[in-house]
Amino acid sequence: MNAFEYAAPRTLDEALAVLREHGDEARVIAGGTALVTMMRQRLVRPSYLVSLREVSGLARIEAANGDVRIGALVNHREVETSPLVRERFPVLAETFRRVASVRIRNMATVGGALAHADPNQDPPVTLIALGARVEIRGPAGAREVPVEDFFRDYYESALEPGEVVTGVVVPRRPAASGAAFVKFLPRTADDYATVAVAATVSLQPDGERCREARIALGSVGVTPLRARAAEALLAGQPFGADLLRHAGESIKNAVDPLSDHRGSAAYKREMASVIAGRALTQAWEAARAAARETR
Amino acid sequence: MTFTQECAIPVERERLWDFLMDVPSVAKCVPGVEEVETVDAKAYRGNLRVQVGPIRLALHGTMTVDEQDRAAWRARMRAEANDGRVGGGIRARMSLTLAPGDGGTRLRIDTDLTILGRIGEFGQPVIKKKADALLEEFARNLGSRLQQGG
User: Fold this and answer.
1) What is the ipTM of this complex?
2) Closest Cα of chain A to B118: distance in Å?
3) pTM of the full structure
4) Dist CA B42 CA A184 (whole Å)
5) β-strand A133-138 against A67-71: which pairing, if any?
6) What is the pLDDT of residue A195?
7) Chain B residue closest to A154 (CA)?
8) Chain centroid to CA B84
9) Per residue in A145-166, is it b (16+ CB within 10 Å) or e — as a string?
């Protein structure tokens, strides 16, 4: 690993000032699970590290009206075990529970994982299906970007130079809705997924037909993807095997997997359709159950 | 890994061939290539800068032209380049073929690429996509340069 200077400012404004001063040579560090690994491999060699650990106010999970805001410095394990997240978005707690191993979950932060923009991660998939937004602060002020628009390319995000992720906001779920996260993991429990799918389904007042569905997929492209064409097929329809098959075909066209040791591109394309079918089935069942309860 | 790429360049085959065989000039059309110098009639030395996400590579190496067959409109070359800081490098064998088509020339590139060292594991999955993006920009640069009277 190369030698570097380390700063641990106490406010976000100080952190932004350090980033501005050192430009390209500085990198933000939070949990360090991704960055330190890359530094050890000498893939990246920042001469300045700006830690966000001492910055106050970034490590909270809080309710804001019906929404839930998760600070950038909250770690994966905290999301997994948060009573608030478990009550409002059990699918999100479950998704974070499935990331890597508990040791990594205790270190890796929500904001760091987003900024790392690794297309094989699980949380972005569920955050996209839930319609979450990334909170960003930079020299030009604060802004929000839908999670689905945040990832631009392989390990590249919408963050501009000098900007940092400050949190993620998950909006309230409609009544009569369900969500599911399904991770296809043929090797070991702490591996990246071969394909991961999150689906949300909300139902019309009849408690049967789909009002809106969202399907997001990970590990099947250079960024996490949203399968909009498949979602459009589902809107207004009652649940059925034919419908799922059509959606599955559409998903095969939406994904663009890379061949690697977790499977060939062709295999991942097939599995994306299979796993999406399972996620949709689970989400739809959960939505029906929720609809029955509210009646 | 091996892959084949094709692109159309809107100039006639003879002119494209002559331009492509002038390596230092062609190199100016390859995005990220810097400081190309001639070693001898067949070999050239230069730098290639590539960025993949947070990783910036500065590859330094040589390219050797093994075959120039104007009768068959085919050229073969190989490249060896290393990044001393990150630790790793590339070895590539490429074959260029020119065929008439679409009001200009179709350029076909067959590549056999090996990535060595630390950059291999990280970069392997996206090499084809990066190579496609590189070729697209190269074709655009080549087209506009030759149409300007290059």
Assistant:
1) 0.72
2) 7
3) 0.88
4) 51
5) unpaired
6) 97
7) B53
8) 21
9) bebbebbebbbbbebeebbbbb
Q: Find the CB nearest A154 among B52, B85, B118.
A: B52
Chain A residues in contact with B83 (beta carbon < 8 A):
none
Task: Give me the DSSP letters along A11-47.
Answer: SHHHHHHHHHHHGGGEEEESS-TTHHHHHHTTS---S
Q: Could A222 and B118 be called an inter-chain contact, meaning their C-beta atoms sit closer than 8 Å?
A: no
pLDDT per residue as tens digits for the range A53-78: 999 999 999 998 889 999 999 999 99
The answer to whether residue A158 neighbours chain B at the CB level (below 8 Å) is no
Interface test with B, best of A2, A35, A40, A42 (most B CBs within 10 A): A42
Residues 6 or more apart whose Cβ sits within 8 Å of residue A241: none
Instruction: For each of the domains in chain B, give its residue range(s) and CATH number, in order of start.
Output: 2-147 (3.30.530.20)
Extract the tokens encoding B115. Answer: 């990535």
Banded pLDDT at B150 (limits 50, 70, 90): very low
How confident is the model over A84-103, as a mean pLDDT? 97
Percent of chain A with pLDDT over 90: 88
Whether residue A156 has pLDDT greater than 60: yes
Contacts of residue A80, Cβ cutoff 8 Å, sequence gap at least 6: A93, A96, A97, A105
Per DSSP bridges, beta strands A151-153 and A195-203 are unpaired
Tens digit of each residue's pLDDT (9 = 90 or more) over A10-38: 999 999 999 999 998 999 999 999 999 88
Structural domains of chain A sorted by starting position, each given as residue range(s) with its CATH number in brackets? 5-51 (3.30.43.10), 61-170 (3.30.465.10), 177-294 (3.30.390.50)
